[in-house]
Amino acid sequence: MVSRSSIQSEQGKNLPLEDPVGYSDVEKSSSVLSSSGARALLALAIFGLAYGADQLVKYLVQKNMELGETISVIDGVLRWRYILNPGAAFSMGENHTWVFTIITCVAAVICLVSLIRARATVWVCTLALLLGGILGNLTDRLFRAPGFGVGHVVDFISVGNFAIFNIADSCICVSMALIVVLVFRGINLDGTREEQN
């Protein structure tokens, strides 16, 4: 039987294990990026895709649609409807724009710090997607009318009778769902996995 701290060699000597930490406490994830450069490139690619797509499509919506205009994509299911949202995701809290701007700034900092600490591939992907969504909407709040910090977010995706949202909102929702799954599965930022009791 192998102990946590050593193994028995043929000559009878105890040799230290490379990773003696908690076989009963954690197990290593098989998908951990060992190179900080690889993690940075992956995070940058996913962040760039999410943030870039959000801002590009918002620009196209504003350039090609009139405020309040609706274009049917799939009858009764999907349509583009251009609105300006002063509230949070899905038009909540429309009278407290500046509060959501502050909250979004704090969330962006927390997300960035967590992303820098992340080693597991799945966490890097998830947090980069989340950061792209957060900064997509934060950009609107900081730089769109009516003014700095109280800018209105461009929303345009309307599904059935559901709220109107955008690509940034979608990135945030998908990444938050993934975070819930990762937490419940006990997968840590560093790629270790908590032993399930």
UniProtKB/TrEMBL annotation:
Keyword Heme assigned: no
GO annotation, cellular component aspect: plasma membrane
Name the record gives this protein: Lipoprotein signal peptidase
Functional summary from the UniProt entry: This protein specifically catalyzes the removal of signal peptides from prolipoproteins.
Localization, UniProt: Cell membrane
Family, per entry: Belongs to the peptidase A8 family.
Major location category of this protein: membrane
Gene Ontology biological-process annotations: proteolysis
Transmembrane segments annotated in the record for this chain: 38-57, 97-115, 122-139, 159-184
Active site (UniProt): 155, 169
Keywords from the named record: Aspartyl protease, Cell membrane, Hydrolase, Membrane, Protease, Transmembrane, Transmembrane helix
Pfam families in the cross-refs: Peptidase_A8 (PF01252)
Biased segments, Polar residues type: 1-12
Region (Disordered): 1-21
Species annotation: Rothia amarae
Record membrane topology: Multi-pass membrane protein
Involved pathway(s): Protein modification; lipoprotein biosynthesis (signal peptide cleavage)
Documented EC number(s): 3.4.23.36
Reactions listed under catalytic activity: Release of signal peptides from bacterial membrane prolipoproteins. Hydrolyzes -Xaa-Yaa-Zaa-|-(S,diacylglyceryl)Cys-, in which Xaa is hydrophobic (preferably Leu), and Yaa (Ala or Ser) and Zaa (Gly or Ala) have small, neutral side chains
Listed GO MF terms: aspartic-type endopeptidase activity
InterPro entries listed in its UniProt record: Peptidase_A8
